[in-house]
Amino acid sequence: MFNKFLRENKISAAILTVIRLYLGYSWFTAGFHKITGGFDASGFLGNVVKNPVKGPDGNMVYGWYVNFLESFALPNIDVFNFIVPWGETLIGLGLLLGCLTTAAMFFGLVMNFSFFLAGTVSHNPTDIFLGFIILTAGYNAGRYGLDRWVVPFINKTIGKSKAKSAV
Q1: What pTM did the predictor assign?
Q2: DSSP string for residues in the chain
Q3: Which of 28, 49, 83, 128 has its CA 20 to 30 A from that of 106?
Q4: CA distance 149 to 142
C-alpha cells in the first residue's frame, strides 16, 4: 500500500520533488565546490587507509574496502580526483532537473556508502535514508521534472530497437 502511494500518487510525487531538490542541491554544491576549489582526494583516502573504521574489538571492520583504497584508488588518484567532483555535480544536476532520477540516485547512494565505509558519518545516514525513498519511488520521483519526457522517450527508443532485433 505504501509502495503504491510512493510510486504512483501525485501528492507523493510533490513530496518526492522536495526531497529530490534538497538532495540535488546538496550533491550539486558539494561537487561544484570541489571542481572550482581544486579537489584532491589523496589526503582523505590516505587517512582512511591509516585510520580505518574499527569495531568494538579494535579490529578493522571494512578491511576489503581499505584494501580497495590502498591497492586501487590511491594508485589511480587522478581518476578519483576527476570522478568524485564530477560525479557529485552530475548526481546533483540529475536530481535537481529530475532527469534520469533513479540512475542519479543510485550513483548517489553508491557514493554515500563509499563515504560511509570510509568512516565519514556526517549527513550520510540521512542522505541514504532519503535516497532509498527516491530510489524506491522510481519514475514518480522525477514526475515533476525532465523524467516526464525523458523516460517515455527512452522506453520508446529501446522498445523500437528491441522490436527490430527480434525480427
Answers
A1: 0.90
A2: -HHHHHHH-HHHHHHHHHHHHHHHHHHHHHHHHHHHTT---HHHHHHHHHS--B-TTSSBS-HHHHHHIIIIITTTHHHHHHHHHHHHHHHHHHHHHTSSHHHHHHHHHHHHHHHHHTT--TTHHHHHHHHHHHHHHGGGGGTTSTHHHHHHHHHHHHHHHHHHHH-
A3: 49
A4: 10
The mean per-residue pLDDT over the stretch 84-109 comes to: 98
Q: Over 90: is that where the pLDDT of 158 sits? A: no
Q: Which residues contact 136 (CB under 8 A, 6 or more apart)?
A: 3, 6, 7
Q: Tell me the three cell numbers of residue 65.
A: 574496502
